[in-house]
Amino acid sequence: MGVKKDKLKGLDIRYFLLPLFCLIIIFAALTYFTLRNRVNERYRFFENEALSIADSYSHALVYSHEAYDIISELLSEKLIVASQAVMLINGNKDNEFLSELADRFLIDDIFLYNTNGEILYSNVDKYIGWKAYEGHPVYDFMTGNRDIYVEDIRQDTVSGIYYKYAYVKSQDGSFVQIGVLADKIHMFLGQFEFNNLINDFYVKSGVAHISFINNEYKVIASSIPDYEGMVIEDEGFKARISGQEYSTLRSVQDNQNVFIVWVPVFHGGEKHGTLSISWKTAEIDAEIIRVIHHGCLLLVILLSFMGGILYYAYRKNKSNLKIAYYDKLTGLPNNEYLEEYLAEEIKNIDKNKKAIFLLNCANIRILNMTYGFAYGDKIIHQIAGKVQSVLRPDDTLFRFGSDRFILVIDSYNNRDELIDLAQKLISIFESPFEGKTGHQYVSAEIGIVEIRDKNITVDKLLQDATLALSHMDGSLCDSIQFFEKEMEDAVRQEDTIEKALRAVINDDSRDTLYLHFQPKVDIKRNTVAGFEALARLHIDGVGNISPVRFIEIAEKRHLIYDLGKQILHKACEFIKNANENTAHSISVAVNISGIQLLRDEFVEDIREIVRTHSIDMSSLEFEITESVLLDNFDLINKKLGEIKRMGISISLDDFGTGFSSLSRLRELNIDTVKIDKYFIDKIRGENDSDLIVADIISMAHKIGLSVVAEGVEKDGQMAYLKKHDSDIIQGYLFSKPVSEAEAIDFLKIFETQASGLG
User: Fold this and answer.
1) Are 7 and 325 spatial neighbours (Cβ–Cβ below 8 Å)?
2) Hey, which residues does 264 pair with through a beta bridge?
3) Which domain holds residue 342?
4) If you average pLDDT over residues 436-464, what whole number do you get?
5) Which of 80-89, 321-330, 497-506, 515-524 has the lowest mean pLDDT?
6) Distance CA 601, CA 337 (A)
7) CA dihedral angle for residue 15, residue 21, residue 27, residue 28, rounded to 10 degrees
8) Considering the entire predicted model, what is its pTM?
């Protein structure tokens, strides 16, 4: 089998890759704009940073020489103080003397420690007795190997005030700590501000180069020592340096790409020079690369995540399609797929002649009930495989229901080609299938519909195929049937008849169902013994419906019981009218089906109907056929006995054509046998010795039954029946079935004639 429109193959992965590609484009665009904004932001940062640096250090740069002189003086002073203090402490070790030294040398704090790190003497009384502890800077000096040590500015651990401390250790391990306030130390460090600020910023900021250029274009200070003292000669640079506003330039410096910012430095409203700051663009480039790498990493992660999701969605969608459109047992396309496929095929019938086969495995349900559904499923799986093995590449097989398959024929030339393929499929079922209980035969039948109308719906097409199956008539073989328009007409008519019958039962259309009555004549007394009620159905727009047809439909649609009650009501109405309009009481025979007899409520319903119409039970006679007795003889015979006891007589219709034996006839709770017309038609008045009608009459009389001869149409037949003592005759010789009014007129006329003859 080749499925031209396989949904699983038709699930194009491009539909899943397209969103992924769009996502890459969007992410790349976002990355580009992020990078561009980041670069511009970085350059703005350089500019702002340069302005900030210029503002922060303008005063320090302007007064650098003055700061240098002050710092040099303070350094000399403090070195002298430290030397004298060490010398003096060796001779005098009391608080008073230390205070005198502090005042003399402008020292804020002097502390004398013993070898254990305890303050013995100090110019500040509150610290006497304090002892250095582990982790404290004093403790670190005491336990260290250094004899002299100068600390950076720090907060005093007791007072929290900033000090700068120096230590000197003596030979015996005792030591002295000298401290000055932080403001004096800042003055002391000021000697380095002019020379080191540039380098300090250079180290801390990561710039490529920083210089200060005076108004004469001379480099006063630079992070590159070789530049100090240089005079700027480049006119372009001069133009930028001479300006009153900051200026930027991307350039090459020492073989490096740099971004230069020139910022004028003002003090007291006067320009003292220009600060030149260069940043390596390699840093920006590196940052760009980092952003790109970061973006690529995010993209890879995102693509992996989204790709996984899309792949899962693809697989899930494929799995869902398989669940939605393919049969789990056979792997064949299912009903949902069939509807879409056929809808497309119908559109293309102009290109090729197309048809469908509905293959029904007739006894699979019996196998399921006998051996279980698992067994039936294995057989179905084998059937699917064998059917597929004989199909043409362009034909498509679908699972349609539990025991049915649909085969779509993509192209054919004529009906003979379809018949050949159908017979080939039927031949598959001539060989048994393998089951757990051994070889198992399956019977199959095929309904064929040729697709001729491109306006036909899928539902109608499948309906026609089902109709074809239901009309197997053996015209081609016992298992193949083409759909014909007449089948649909028959089904529609059946539906119309069913609706008409339901209307009758619901008493919505009483005139649709009516009765005709055929007289039964007692030839011994020359009187009308009664009538047989024959149901008739007339539907507007359809016409008269054969009793055989509508009774069959009533039985098939389970309407026969309620329909029988309506017929019984009409028969009782006739009895009442006849009794009121004639001199004698009559009986009416009504045909009763086995279904009615088997209903528990039938007897009670009879009583209710008779009471409703106020007639005698003896006015009714029920006719049954021999076929009614075949399957439920004892039960039905018991019910017949109950009916007889009510006063209703029972007759056996069509006697002689069934299977009743003499012993069974004796057991039956009946009053009359009706000899079938088949035997009456053989009475021709020539050689009557070969006829068995006389024997039937004699036999019936011997067991106490009366005899009615049906279908009497000729005088010779009546003469024969009189001769052999038949009780009652019925047929066209006297009257065909007539309406109620005609039946009452017949009764009056016959009685008048009979009384005249008497």
Assistant:
1) yes
2) 274
3) 335-483
4) 86
5) 80-89
6) 49
7) -170
8) 0.57
